[in-house]
Write the structure tokens for this entry.
Amino acid sequence: MTGARRDGDDPRLEAILTALCADGGRATVQRRIVVSALLAGPRHVTAEELAATVQARHPDIATSTIYRTLEALDRQGVVQHAHLGHGPAVYHLNDTDHLHLVCESCGHVIEVPGSAYEAFARLLAEDYGFRVAPHHFAVQGRCGACAAEPGLPQRGGAVGA
Amino acid sequence: MTGARRDGDDPRLEAILTALCADGGRATVQRRIVVSALLAGPRHVTAEELAATVQARHPDIATSTIYRTLEALDRQGVVQHAHLGHGPAVYHLNDTDHLHLVCESCGHVIEVPGSAYEAFARLLAEDYGFRVAPHHFAVQGRCGACAAEPGLPQRGGAVGA
DNA sequence: TGGCCAACTGCGAGCTGCATGCGTTAGCGT
DNA sequence: ACGCTAACGCATGCAGCTCGCAGTTGGCCA
């Protein structure tokens, strides 16, 4: 897997480290490792998953360092985190404008391009003066597969349709 | 103010207790007190706030009872809970179809009628087969007052895209 | 090239928010 | 009134972070 690759392969790594340094921050070896794992891993990871990935090869990196690095990355706008339902927060790179559809039933996360909610965001801005923050915009519901199952019925004032 | 009122004032109380009993549940004095506090209190409360309200007058009611009562109410569809951002979950009566706009800056929660996102929900259903669950539908962003402040700028894509 | 200083790290304790097991209490149908 | 059992109170436990502290280290400036 990534074992044979050097960390410096991904050009995004240097860009991110530069962004971290831009505000008086420092590019430490630990941060380099954490960011590399973030770039190499799946699209959405929890802090715990990232910690497990990092610590598998670098057991000397503390979990709190992972959290603090993610916090720093979040502050710089490099990554975003969202609280999808009940579990821990998930982090992902802030490279595309999209929102998350989270299936309550199977936990699957569908990414939807930002254009999908453009009209909705505009409506909220015009009628309520509310500016939607796309990061953090997680919509709960049921994906197509789970909605088809006869499991649990839809509750509450289901949105027309 | 509520001190002089009897708990039985609100007709909704009996309806909710009946709903609780409908499924083999029981209408205990504790549940009566918890539901009364829920009806008398503000629109959105955390479990902790509700526990504080209840225990102010009934210190012998355990916190776990509050949680279990809220869970039972949630199961019956009487209340809904949503995770608005980082804090604890908030509970509210399931009486109107609405979604929550949560201001990241000041924490204010704006309620928006369900009709506002009907078109958006339909789009998600048609294009992605995703059925939005209105409860849990919390949109993060900045309210009009906070958006006007020169605080933090809106962030966008940062990584090399 | 060396020194300085603050940012950062690791460790670990602690905190919040909630879940759960257990023995006891008390609704509620009969 | 009786008995079944849901619900209660208490205590404890767990996940997911957060924070304080002492030691380390990166990056800047002379």
Chain A is about 40% helix and 15% strand.
